Structure formats: structure tokens, C-alpha cells
């Protein structure tokens, strides 16, 4: 598993375990988020924040869009 895949998985785990979101839905939220794009474009920047931070960011983004 690459570092990017581990980071993505860690965020999915936070969404599922801490926020009670079903895994399939959490994966979709991660894939549809700006986090996913940023992880590809600037993985070093993403790596400076925790999985909890990114999960909260995704939840904020999702609540604004939906």
C-alpha cells in the first residue's frame, strides 16, 4: 500500500469509527472530496495534517455541498 493509499484509508477509518459513517459511504465521500485531489497534487501538504483533520474537512465540505 502506498503512502497516499494509507492516508486515504486512515481518513476513511476516522469517518467510519469516529463519525459512524458506513465504510462504503465514507469511501465515496473521500473520493469525491477536494482532499482526494489534493492528495494527488500535493501529498506533502496533506501529510502535515492528521487523518482526523482531513475527516473533519471532508465532513465540512460535504455539509456545504449537500
Give me the secondary-structure topology:
Elements: H1 3-17, H2 23-32, H3 34-41, H4 43-47, H5 51-65
Helix pairs in contact: 1-2, 1-5
Keywords:
66 residues; mainly alpha; single chain; 5 helices; 0% strand
State the end-to-end distance: 31 Å
Category from helices, strands and their pairing: mainly alpha
Helical amount: over 70%
Largest beta-sheet details: none
Write down the overall mean pLDDT.
94
Summed up, the domain count is 1
| Radius of gyration over C-alpha positions, nearest whole angstrom | 11 Å
What pattern of helices and strands is seen along the backbone? HHHHH
Total number of beta strands: 0
Count of separate DSSP helical elements: 5
Beta-strand percentage? under 5%
Parts with pLDDT < 50 across at least 5 consecutive residues: none
What would you call the shape? Answer: globular
Structural description of this entry:
The protein is mainly alpha-helical and about 70 residues long. It has one domain. Helices cover about 80% and strands about 0% of the residues. α1 packs across α2 and α1 packs across α5. It is globular.
Short description:
By secondary structure, this protein is mainly α.
